[in-house]
Amino acid sequence: MAYSKILKSALFSLCFIGSSTIYAAPATEATINKFLQLSELNTILDKSLNELQPYFDDQAEQMIQSISPNEKLDVNEVSIALKLSQKMLDMTRKTVASPKATDAIKQVVKEVYTEEEIKAYNTFLSTPEGKSINRKSTDTMLKIQTAIERIAQETMQNSDYEKEILKIIEPLTKH
After folding, report:
1. Which of 39, 77, 107, 172 stands 20 to 30 A from 155 (CA)?
2. Are 106 and 138 in a shared domain?
């Protein structure tokens, strides 16, 4: 009998805890706006875009190289590639700064976080430590991504890995 009461009590508690999570209040526009301001999202996005400049340079060079009759780009083609790269960066900046992008970001935040979570995060971002961590998080993620890419590249250059890949595609090479 006591076991049954404990079990019922535990089930009731689990249902209550689960229901509070399931029915958590959706994030409000005001809380999301404060989050976007405190997280310095525009500054972070701008910094990230600046770091994309070499990517746009490479893309522009490849585009010009694909239509150039020259093996190496001449001075005029390099100049056009630089203009193209800058245009790609400017268009990306404009897209990221657009109301449509802001609305999309707000929607993602609203889908991912509850009102309570964003309020807690806003409280954290209002502290000196929160501001510092927030500013460092983009650099941290970029460094982690670079490290993982380097490790993956090293792994792919491993002769054992190459042998495994060749073994997998071998049936395709036998005609």
Report:
1. 172
2. no
Domain boundary at 86, 108, 126, which?
Answer: 126
Residue numbers of the domain that contains 106 = 2-126
Radius of gyration of the chain (CA): 26
Query: Would you state the structure tokens that stand for residue 133, as one six-digit string?
Result: 């961590």
Total domains in the chain come to 2
To the question of pTM greater than 0.85 for the whole model, the response is no
Residue 30: which of 125, 119, 150 has the closest Cα?
A: 119
**Structure letter (DSSP) for residue 69:** S
Residuewise pLDDT in 10s, the chain (175 residues): 454 555 455 445 544 444 444 567 899 999 999 999 999 988 888 888 888 899 999 999 999 999 989 899 999 999 999 999 999 999 999 998 999 999 999 999 999 999 999 999 999 999 999 999 988 988 888 889 889 988 988 887 877 888 888 888 888 887 6
